[in-house]
Write a structure and sequence with these properties.
The chain is mainly α. The chain contains five helices and no strands. It has one domain.
């Protein structure tokens, strides 16, 4: 559940630069934001799946190491144009579909 919330926050906060990364209280989400916007490092992100997602998004890795299958499929859809249909989690599938539009 924690990972699903983290992924949801990633998509919600990821596109909003107005608040800046420093306003994000979750350390891992803040580091992910910094990596996305300022080229920060993914290596210090404690959550494994978020760290792997960060590496995939910044071109330093792939989605294959993400343990949660739905998060992995979402990452693959985002990075490699994979399908959203096989994502079991309704919220993640809807996020995926929104990203594809």
């Amino acid at each position: 559940m924690k990972s699903l919330v983290a992924v949801f926050l990633m998509f919600v906060l990821g596109g909003h630069a107005y608040a800046g990364c420093s306003g994000i209280s979750n350390n891992d989400q803040r580091k992910l934001c910094e990596a996305r916007t300022n080229g920060g490092s993914c290596g210090s992100i404690d959550d494994r799946d978020l760290r792997y997602l960060c590496n995939a998004e910044t071109g330093h890795g792939g989605c294959g190491s993400i343990d949660d299958s739905d998060q992995r499929k979402l990452c693959e859809a985002k990075i490699n144009g994979g399908s959203c249909g096989s994502i079991d989690n309704n919220d993640l599938r809807n996020q995926c579909d929104a990203l594809k539009r």
